[in-house]
Amino acid sequence: MPITSRSFVRWNSFLFAIGLLALVVLIGATFWLIARTSDYADAALTARQVRADIADLKSLVQDAESSQRGFLLTANDSYLGPFELARQEIPSKLDSLRVYVTQEPALAEGMAALSTRINAKLDELSNTVALARAGRTQEALAIVDGGAGQKLMDEARDLFDTLIDGADRRFASSIAAQQDSANALNWVALAATGVILVVVGSAAWIVLNYTRDLASARVEIETLNTGLEEKVRERTVELGRANDEIQRFAYIVTHDLRAPLVNIMGFTSELETSIAPIKELVTGLEEEGREIGEAKLIVAEDLPEAIGFIRSSTRKMDGLINAILKLSREGRRPLKPERLELQPLLGSCVDVIQHQVNDAGGEVTLDIRVSHIVSDRMALEQIVGNMLDNAVKYSVQDRPLRIMVRALPTLVNFVTIEIEDNGRGIAEQDHERVFDLFRRSGTQDKAGEGIGLAHVRSSVRNLGGDITLESRLGEGTTFKINLPRDLRTVTRSNAA
Questions:
Q1: Cα dist. 386→111, 118, 392 in Å?
Q2: Residue 213 φ/ψ, nearest 5 degrees
């Protein structure tokens, strides 16, 4: 059954709503699960730090006791180095541990008991050392032989072991919970990807059938052409409307359905990045001799395999979208190379935004060192105009806007047009992706959909050139547009 315009719009609106809902669910679940994973990671790191501090404290107490024994046996002050160091560092270690365990009642109770015994042991050690220094070694040895210090040390060791076991259990439970969150995120991403793939596939099927119907209509027009001008005109109008409709639909599909794809790719990268600290934690546990069960297999194989499936699925979806996009590129305007004087051309582009620059209290400076090039006037004006519009749009309110437009000879048969501003700048990690379709950088406080720079790069490359940028966040940006001096040489090369 042929697809009518009404059913075409209805079905695609329905599919778009499903895709949007899947994206919203994916984004919400992803943020929630990432937050949970981050909390569990913090808890695991805290538990690991607590364990390390407890082990350090235990070592300090043991060193202090060994140092005291050596001094009592030899009366040599060099043995007291570890004792003095331990006496200085133990209080700060105890304070740090008390801060860590404030939210763990079980650990806090054990920590209080441990502090009491450590302080009592330090008092006993300090007392015996002081007696030995005063020449009362026998009295000091009698205290040691009394066994009170040994009892304190045994009780402290038991408390150390209890606290270490508690920290280990806390660490293990945090790792397990973190793994559960990562698995849940994985399944949510897979489910959303499946839904979006179905939506895109269905939309593509509708477009292809609708396109087939249009093609059939064209054949019918050619077959039924009787030379009646009015009938031809009517059919031509119908075809024009149909083509406009398919162009609009292709734009909707490539714009609104590519956005979920980009989000899935981004969140997959986030998930891929979050695996690294998990691997480090699991490796640390394994090196400590801890039993990690299936955690290593999950982190090393299952998660990368699942992420690979997501990436494979998104590539398939991207292929479908690109196929639809190809429809919208039919009938693209052909380039018209002509000799262009750069000084007046760039000057006219500046004149368009001059009033906005004046309103901002700024200025535009031209530095044209190339007289002319052969290129497409409309494309070049659109490229430069877009760059100048961005310079004004993303200016900084607290300083006057300054724009420099240069035209410089560079490589053989190439020219570079530079547009430099002192605006808000672009973060280093965004230098490349700002040219991607629907991708924007920085605070989204300006109207726009992230199409401008993608269109500029496409137009520049269509002219046989390329565009790059240099930028520092908060200082400004310089776009460099490299173009051939004569577009006709590029066109002939491509044709060959």
A1: 65, 72, 10
A2: -65, -40
Domains of the chain by range and CATH? 1-332 (no CATH), 337-495 (3.30.565.10)
| Cα separation, 44 vs 95, whole angstroms | 20
> What is the three-class DSSP state of 439?
coil
Residue 127 burial (CB count, 10 A): 15
**Under 8 Å CB-to-CB from 55, ≥6 apart: which residues?**
164
Element holding 272 (H helix, E strand): helix 258-287
CA 273, 301, 199: angle at the middle one, nearest 5? 70
Q: Which two tokens stand for residue 186?
A: 């994985």
402-409 vs 363-368, strand pairing mode:
parallel
Note down pLDDT in tens along the chain; length 496 residues: 566 767 767 777 887 788 778 778 778 877 776 777 777 777 777 777 777 877 888 888 888 878 878 887 787 878 888 888 888 888 887 877 777 766 666 667 777 777 888 888 788 888 888 888 887 878 878 887 877 778 888 877 887 787 778 777 778 887 887 778 778 778 877 887 887 787 777 777 777 776 777 677 777 777 776 665 666 467 656 655 655 555 566 666 666 666 677 777 777 777 777 777 777 777 777 677 676 667 667 767 777 777 777 877 777 666 556 545 644 554 356 788 999 999 999 999 999 999 888 888 889 999 999 999 999 999 899 899 999 998 988 888 888 999 999 999 987 789 999 999 998 888 888 888 888 766 667 666 666 566 778 888 888 988 889 999 999 888 899 999 999 999 888 754 443 3
